[in-house]
Specification:
alpha/beta, two-stranded antiparallel ribbon, about 230 residues, globular, binds manganese (II) ion, nine-stranded mixed beta sheet, 13 strands
Length: about 230
Amino acid sequence: MKRIAITSARQSPIGSTFSYKQDFINESYVEAIFKAGALGYILPFTDPPNALDLLDGFDALLLPGGEDIDPLVYGAEETYSINRDAALDRLQIALVHAAMRLEIPILGICRGLQIINITLGGTLYQDIKREFSQKINHLRLDIPYLGAHTVKIESDSFLYRVFKREILDVNSVHHQGIKDLGYGLRATAISPDGLIEAVEGENMVGVQWHPEAQYSEMQDLFRLFIEEYIS
Ligand code: MN
């Protein structure tokens, strides 16, 4: 079976004697990958990041959802970013560089798309409502498993090959989004208010929504990513 590395998120321990941070991944990612015919493995958190070693032997890298990226990383003053973890940013950015060098395909989800964008020189809106537009509420924490808004998919894209249609209903549980697009990336899905909701580049795909949480409608995304990108 193909082996997909998933970078962990970190949290402070709840109800533990020890104060060490804990690495975790939501099982939904592993389950989505498993149903699509591959195995997901959690990557340990390391600081400094030994990204090339971490990716040794893996067929793909999945960058999952998570908290905000430290705006210093993309050269911006902090405005509305919350819950930053600069060490985790460093690790995930190093993993993108390493995956590119090793020609390992990358799938970025939510924060994962933002990490791809930042690594390639892009920037973010630190709060969509206050810095971009209030036309659509992108932070629908009340309906994480349901379509919250539509996106328009570019017809000559990987996403179009997956979904075979232009208009797709996606969930939306993010308060940040892409401002300037990173080098070599192409926006392949846009929400009706004009926000970039998906990017594609050489050997990489990123989506701003959470396909693993809308699995019955999104399973082909995982299946075709494995089929097309992992040879
Ligand atoms: Mn959205």
